[in-house]
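User: I've been trying to design a sequence by hand for this structure and keep getting stuck. Would you show me what you'd pick, starting by listing the structure so we're on the same page?

Assistant: Good idea, let's start from the same input. This is the structure you sent:
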């Protein structure tokens, strides 16, 4: 079936921009078969039954999350597949700018590290002189660290320094150092730097330089 011709009296070439619409017998037969198949399947398949049957498939109800490898300073990207709070597998992130989906032998072993029964999942504390570790809560760990930072900072605080015959304000402590990591984002590093300077720490380093 060809497209309609231009109306009588129209200028020559006025309908030249319009593409002709052509449907041959093969296209008509293909459309008829596809439509008939769709109608037949709709009558044969129970959608609810299909969904119930696929609920236990291998990839059903699986969520993927991006993370970073924790072995070295490269910060390679990884994708973790999780279902019901349980890690199923880990693979390289093909969209990550560092590794483009590839992983070294250490990165490949991340899954075994995560599922190891020896993996520490809660903070642990060993008292001075003690021969064993004891489990503590995350809040307890944060409180202990905050108290130690405050105590060390107050005891070693240097407010001024003698330069020539003048006392110059320096406001620092040389008893605490801050160590950053290559896996941190630029935004995280900015916040860490601000926190370290607010605490008066002149020693701010990066673990990739060690």
């Amino acid at each position: 079936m060809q497209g309609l011709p231009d109306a009588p009296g129209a200028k020559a070439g006025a309908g030249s921009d319009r593409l002709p619409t052509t449907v041959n017998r093969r296209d008509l037969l293909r459309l008829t078969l596809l439509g008939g198949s769709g109608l037949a399947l709709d009558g044969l398949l129970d959608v609810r039954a299909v969904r119930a049957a696929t609920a236990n498939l291998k990839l059903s109800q699986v969520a993927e999350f991006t993370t970073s490898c924790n072995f070295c300073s490269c910060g390679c990207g990884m994708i973790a597949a999780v279902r019901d709070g349980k890690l199923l597998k880990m693979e390289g992130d093909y969209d990550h700018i560092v590794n483009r989906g590839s992983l070294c032998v250490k990165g490949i072993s991340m899954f075994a590290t995560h599922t190891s029964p020896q993996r520490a999942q809660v903070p642990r504390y060993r008292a001075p002189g003690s021969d064993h570790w004891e489990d503590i809560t995350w809040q307890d760990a944060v409180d202990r660290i905050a108290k130690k930072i405050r105590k060390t900072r107050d005891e070693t605080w240097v407010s001024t320094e003698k330069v020539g015959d003048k006392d110059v304000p320096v406001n620092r402590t040389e008893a605490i150092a801050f160590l950053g990591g290559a896996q941190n984002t630029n935004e995280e590093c900015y916040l860490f730097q601000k926190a370290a300077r607010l605490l008066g720490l002149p020693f701010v380093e990066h673990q990739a330089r060690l």
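That's my pick for every position. To get oriented when you compare it with your attempt: The two ends are 76 Å apart (CA to CA). Residues 116 and 122 are 14 Å apart (CA to CA).
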